[in-house]
Amino acid sequence: MKATISDVKNHVGSEVTIGVWLANKRSSGKIQFLELRDGTGYIQGVILKNEVSEETWLNAKELTQESSLYITGTVREDRRAPSGFELTVTSLKTIQIAHDYPITPKEHGVEFLMDHRHLWLRSSRQHAILKIRDEIIKATYDFFYDHGFTKVDPPILTGSSAEGTTDLFHTKYFERDAYLSQSGQLYMEAAAMALGKVYSFGPAFRAEKSKTRRHLIEFWMIEPEMAFCTHEESLEIQERYVTYLVQRILQKCQAELQTIGRDTTKLEKIKAPFPRISYDQAIDFLKQEGFTDIEWGDDFGSPHETAIAEHFDVPVFVTEYPAKVKAFYMKPDPDREEVVLCADLLAPEGYGEIIGGSQRIDDLELMKKRYEQYHLNDPSYKWYLELRQYGSVPHSGFGLGLERAVAWICGLDHIRETIPFPRLLNRIYP
User: Fold this and answer.
1) Given pLDDT bands bounded at 50, 70 and 90, which one contains residue 216?
2) Fewer CB atoms < 10 Å away: N or C end of the chain?
3) Could you tell me where in the chain the CATH 2.40.50.140 domains are found?
């Protein structure tokens, strides 16, 4: 019977055949222990010399790291095994013997591993991280579907920018200028006017020359947008969504969290509602913490966000930023026009901003003024202004950076491990 490692629990006592790669092996006299993987999990295969043919025994001895094979054996329970099961091998068929596999069990430098990212993905740690990433994506779909959202896919090639063209990748769209999208938000606002509550999940690109552990050139964004929704209501959705993601990983990915050595007691604290501080309060706090150079009106960098977040065990909202450091489309506070109805959600443990969101300007005349202030006279912005002209309503939305969320939930040192093939300032290979 053909099976996978993940479903051997359903075949205890039965003989199964699994297509696998050899992750590692060791021998002790007349016993060989094979650490096997098939993409769904890991299992140990035990070969007893006196219980298999001489051909099977010799073929097993010839196997090298990452050799591929079909292995046949009887599934048995073993509570000492990481998966809870072992395979008593009866036969095997070699597909390919791998020679000189470059990633060995010894220590390797980061650049070496990144140059061999196509192979590094096979390691147990990288496998676990990508499984957690996958579960976060599935949980995202489940959450928004259960809350009445419709998934909409905005374009990747755009004729304009959501937040200015400084950090955009420019290309030619036949005879016209075009850009790789840095956000689908403007298009999601249009979709919300048609469908009420929508979200997108897709790639975004920023030509930001940053080398920090929090930045990627190509990354994935989840961007919900909600018609007839205030900023306060959006914050409540955000904290429920993040809580749902964390609880889902704790429920579904215990084995993966254990593999990467994540301290789950920190994740167990993540429950809505989250604390909130205003930008004004954050400035006062930072000055008290020794950031004497920061002034009201300055945007926060990574050290500032880290200092604020370290004061809390759970994510914290920083609200009401100055309008001048935020995007043109954010709605001013009716009681204080120099600040906007927005918030950044900062993850604990030094992971920085994982969500940025706001209530959007819905007044046509105010948006016209913003167009003048930001020099948005390009015809490619005409359609966005028309959203305020034909049936405008209060609406809010936010964007969650998938890789930053994965980095935080997994407790990773660098964002490069959160995506299969990271694109960094100095890296576009492999």
Assistant:
1) very high
2) N
3) 5-96
